Amino acid sequence: MTHAKDLYGWQWLIDAAELTRFTVEALRAAGAGRREAEVTAQVLVAADLGGVESHGVARLRRYVEGLHSGSINRHAVPEIVADNGSVCVLDAQNGLGQPALCTAVDLAADRARQFGTSAVMVRRSNHMGIAGWFAERAARAGTLAMVSTNAVPQVAPMGTNEPMFGTNPFCYAVPTPQGTLCFDGATSTVSRGKLEQLDRLGEPMLTGWALGPDGRPTTGVPETVQGLIHRKGYALLPLGGGDKDHGGHKGSALSLFIELLCGPLAGAQWSRHTYQGGEGGLGHFVFCLSLEALGDPDIIRAGVGQLAHEVRDGNPVDPEAPVRIPGDRRHRLSEQRNAEGIPVLESVVADLDAIAEFIGVTPVSAMTCDI
C-alpha distances in angstroms, 16 versus 40, 43, 47, 152, 159? Predict the structure, then answer.
């Protein structure tokens, strides 16, 4: 393997195709079907390509172990359990979240082309990775897309220190002449995955991101990560933090909205109940609006592209930092890493090696290049 030194410390460079190969083989060896393994690998590697390492192959172990143990259904086939034309509900049957949500996105885009708009809910699912991958898939099909999911309880609504919501990301994507404009972000101040990444890097977090069991702000990364995983009274804060003066009530309300869409309205569990009974109970939500229903899609795309250009062309506060719109950094990194390789932390590579040994597949290998 070849070391790569960058801002995050010592890392390996791994070719995207090689990382995808390994991920597919590991999932297949654990019992996943070929399509399910390939979709899941695409989502995980896309996260690493785009610099969202918190949701990349560092999460592979949970899927492999879940499939191997049977806590994730290896034979799940998403089933439509309610079909009202433009509104559908899918049962993921406790399978991998990525292929279930991919099925929902493709269904939503197809129904939006028929009816103008569509909404598809998913129930009995598992973790699905980065929402942006799915929203951009629907955007490339000619729709404005919104994608959300709930998660295990980690976020304390404003006014309490008790975790009741997931980090509940909200994502949208719309096509432009140059590609897709896509925002994907948690409705908490920070995701647990980001804290796990900081923990691997040995870096600190900011005050105002999390609360300890005593209800007071904490900045201890390792104990917060473990406290969230094992539900020992730690909690993340909603967007805006824990008080109204900084907009915490807005972040709390947004998180509740996602919980409603992906929990009760989807016939799924909400955060504190998501894994009761030993199987996945997560819910996902997809909304698609066909551009053709609004007029000439090319004119709409051109308008979106012009708006994006005007925002980027705004006067920067810092002349050394150009104005960006959602997705700019991720797209730039994806191009760079597709060409040069994906930097992966030593601790993550060690985990991938352990997965290879556990499941009996060829370990991942690095690019042979000098940087």
Answer: 14, 12, 11, 30, 44
pLDDT of residue 4: 41
Q: What is the pLDDT of residues 9-61, one digit of tens each?
A: 457 899 999 999 999 999 999 999 999 999 999 999 999 999 999 899 999 99
| Residue 318 Cα to chain centre, angstroms | 30
Give me the count of residues in the chain.
371
CA distances from 304 to 91, 99, 175, 224 (A): 34, 29, 8, 40
Phi, psi for residue 172 in degrees, rounded to 5: -135, 155
Count other Cβ atoms within 10 Å, centred on residue 253: 15
| Helix or strand (DSSP H, E) at 143 | strand 143-149
Q: Which residue do the tokens 């977090």 mark?
A: 205
Whether 257 has a pLDDT exceeding 70, the answer reads yes
Q: What is the pTM of this model?
A: 0.93
Domains, the chain, ranges and CATH? 3-71+341-359 (1.10.1530.10), 79-189+237-293 (3.30.1370.60)
Which 3-state string (H, E, C) describes 282-316? EEEEEEEEEHHHCCCHHHHHHHHHHHHHHHHCCCC
Q: Containing H/E element for 359? A: helix 346-359
Angle at 283 between CA 279 and CA 284, to 5 degrees: 135
Half-sphere exposure of 367 (CA within 13 A, CB side): 20
The reported pLDDT for the residue numbered 197 is 86
With tokens 């490339």, the residue in question is: 140
Q: Parallel, antiparallel, or unpaired: how do β-strands 143-149 and 179-185 relate?
A: unpaired
